[in-house]
Write a sequence for this structure.
C-alpha cells in the first residue's frame, strides 16, 4: 500500500488505495457513499456525504500513510484572472482573485482557501477557491485516522498534471457528472508545460449517473457534449478549428463510452490500473502518486524540505561559500597582476572625436523621429482585425495607440487600447480574448473606471497588448 485516496465526486464519494509499484501499480476501491440532495450540487450535500463515511474507512492503513484527496471541479470556484499589476503583491493578488471569482457568480466564503498558479508575468493566472469547511473536515479526520494529508487536488488540474505536464498533450477535456472542462492551448503542438486556457462548459446534468448506477443514455451524452462544444466555439473562436481533442471520462459509475462526438476522442493511457473506477481515472490516481510534483494550486501541498536533508544541505552551503570566497580572492590577485602588466606597456591613446557630432536640437528630435517611424511601421489592418470582439462579447474599442520605447528597436512592440464594456465580466473576457489573438503575444489590464453611458453605467478600461513583428 503506497498511498490512500479519497475521491470526492459530484455524485459519489469513494475511498481506496494505490498498491504496487511500476507497471504493476493499480487503484483499489474500498467503498463508496452517494452525495444526497437535489440535482444541483451544494456544499451542505457534500458535507452530509462526508458525515456518512465509516468511522475508520482506512482501518487497514499503517499510521502516517500519505492521504491524497481528489476533488471534483463542481466543488470549487475556479477561473482564469486577467493579468494586473496587483499580482506583484501577494495580498492584493489574493484580493483580486476573490473579487474576480465572485464577479463570475461563484460562492466564495471568507474561510475558503484561495490558490493562484505560477504563470509567467503578464499572462492570466488561474485562481482556485477551495471550500473551507471541506478542508477543515479533511485535516481533522486525517489526524484522527493517524494519516498524513499530502495533497488536495482539483480533478481537471490533476488530469492536466499527469497528461498535460508529463506527456505531449497540448489540449485535454475532462468529463464530469455536471460539467465538461476544456483546457490547454488550442492549435498548439507543444508539450503543455503551462495551462494557457481553462473553460468549464455546463452540461445541465446530461452526463450525470444517478445513485442507482444507471448512466444517461448515449444519445443524451452525445447531445450534451455536442451542444457544449458549439457554445464554447462560439464564445472562444480560437477553439473552433480544433480536431482530435483527448477526452478523459471522470464520471463515477459504469459503463463507459469509447466513441465521442467530434472533435473529442477517447484518452489513451498506458499505465496499468484496475478497480471500480473508470480505468482512465484510475491511471490518473496512480500517475499522481508516481510522477506528479507538488503544484502551486494544491490546497495543502507541503513544499518544505524534510528534516533529514536540512543538515547536509547546510553543510554543503557552507562549503560552497568557502570555495567561492577562495576563488574570488585568487581572481582578484590575478586581475591586479594583469592590470599592472598592461599598464607598463600601454600608452595613452588619443580620444576619438566624431567627425560630425549631433547638436542638442538634433538629439532632442531623435525620440520624436523614432516614434513617428514606429507608428508608420504599425500593421494597422492586422491589429484592428485582431481587436474585433466576437458577436457575444459587448465591447466597443475607442482608441488604439502605439507605445513608445526608449531603447533600440526590438522584435516586439506594444499598443495601448482604450475600450468600453457594460460589465466587468465583459471587460475581463475581452482582455483574455486579445491575449490569445494573433499577432498579439500577451495582454494585461492597466486601469479601469466606471463612466456614465447613454442608458447605464459602463466600465471604461485600458489594456496594453504586445504584438510580434
Amino acid at each position: 500500500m503506497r498511498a490512500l485516496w479519497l475521491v470526492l465526486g459530484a455524485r459519489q464519494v469513494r475511498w481506496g488505495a494505490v498498491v504496487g509499484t511500476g507497471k504493476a501499480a493499480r487503484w483499489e476501491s474500498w467503498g463508496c457513499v452517494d452525495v444526497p440532495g437535489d440535482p444541483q450540487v451544494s456544499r451542505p450535500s457534500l458535507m452530509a456525504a462526508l458525515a456518512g463515511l465509516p468511522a475508520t474507512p482506512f482501518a487497514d492503513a499503517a499510521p502516517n500513510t500519505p492521504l491524497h484527496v481528489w476533488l471534483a471541479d463542481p466543488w470549487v470556484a475556479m477561473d482564469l484572472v486577467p493579468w494586473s499589476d496587483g499580482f506583484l503583491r501577494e495580498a492584493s493578488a489574493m484580493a483580486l482573485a476573490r473579487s474576480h471569482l465572485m464577479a463570475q457568480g461563484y460562492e466564495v466564503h471568507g474561510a475558503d482557501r484561495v490558490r493562484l498558479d505560477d504563470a509567467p508575468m503578464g499572462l492570466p493566472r488561474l485562481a482556485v477557491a477551495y471550500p473551507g469547511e471541506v478542508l477543515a473536515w479533511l485535516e481533522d479526520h486525517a489526524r484522527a485516522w493517524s494519516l498524513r494529508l499530502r495533497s488536495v487536488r482539483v480533478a481537471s488540474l490533476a488530469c492536466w498534471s499527469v497528461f498535460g505536464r508529463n506527456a505531449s498533450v497540448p489540449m485535454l477535456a475532462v468529463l464530469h457528472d455536471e460539467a465538461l472542462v476544456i483546457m490547454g492551448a488550442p492549435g498548439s503542438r507543444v508539450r503543455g508545460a503551462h495551462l494557457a486556457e481553462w473553460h468549464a462548459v455546463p452540461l445541465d446534468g446530461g452526463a450525470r449517473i444517478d445513485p442507482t448506477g444507471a448512466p444517461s443514455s448515449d444519445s443524451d451524452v452525445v447531445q450534451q457534449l455536442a451542444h457544449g462544444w458549439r457554445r464554447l466555439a462560439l464564445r472562444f473562436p480560437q477553439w473552433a478549428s480544433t480536431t482530435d481533442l483527448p477526452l478523459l471520462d471522470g464520471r463515477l459509475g459504469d459503463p463507459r463510452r469509447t466513441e465521442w462526438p467530434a472533435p473529442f476522442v477517447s484518452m489513451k493511457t498506458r499505465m496499468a490500473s484496475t478497480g471500480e473506477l473508470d480505468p482512465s481515472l484510475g491511471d490518473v490516481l496512480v500517475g499522481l502518486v508516481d510522477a506528479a510534483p507538488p503544484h502551486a494550486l494544491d490546497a495543502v501541498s507541503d513544499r518544505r524540505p524534510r528534516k533529514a536533508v536540512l543538515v547536509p544541505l547546510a553543510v554543503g552551503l557552507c562549503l560552497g561559500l568557502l570555495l567561492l570566497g577562495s576563488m574570488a580572492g585568487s581572481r582578484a590577485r590575478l586581475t591586479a597582476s594583469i592590470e599592472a602588466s598592461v599598464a607598463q606597456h600601454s600608452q595613452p591613446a588619443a580620444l576619438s572625436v566624431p567627425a560630425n557630432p549631433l547638436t542638442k536640437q538634433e538629439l532632442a528630435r531623435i525620440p520624436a523621429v523614432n516614434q513617428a517611424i514606429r507608428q508608420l511601421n504599425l500593421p494597422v489592418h492586422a491589429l484592428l482585425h485582431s481587436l474585433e470582439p466576437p458577436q457575444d462579447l459587448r465591447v466597443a474599442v475607442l482608441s488604439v495607440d502605439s507605445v513608445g520605447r526608449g531603447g533600440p528597436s526590438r522584435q516586439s512592440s506594444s499598443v495601448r487600447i482604450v475600450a468600453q464594456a457594460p460589465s466587468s465580466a465583459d471587460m475581463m473576457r475581452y482582455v483574455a480574448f486579445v491575449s490569445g489573438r494573433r499577432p498579439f503575444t500577451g495582454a494585461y489590464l492597466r486601469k479601469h473606471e466606471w463612466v456614465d453611458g447613454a442608458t447605464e453605467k459602463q466600465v471604461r478600461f485600458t489594456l496594453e497588448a504586445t504584438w510580434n513583428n
Q: What stands out?
A: Residues 12 and 458 are 43 Å apart (CA to CA). Residues 209-215, 270-276, 303-309 have pLDDT under 50 and may be disordered. The longest helix spans residues 307-345.
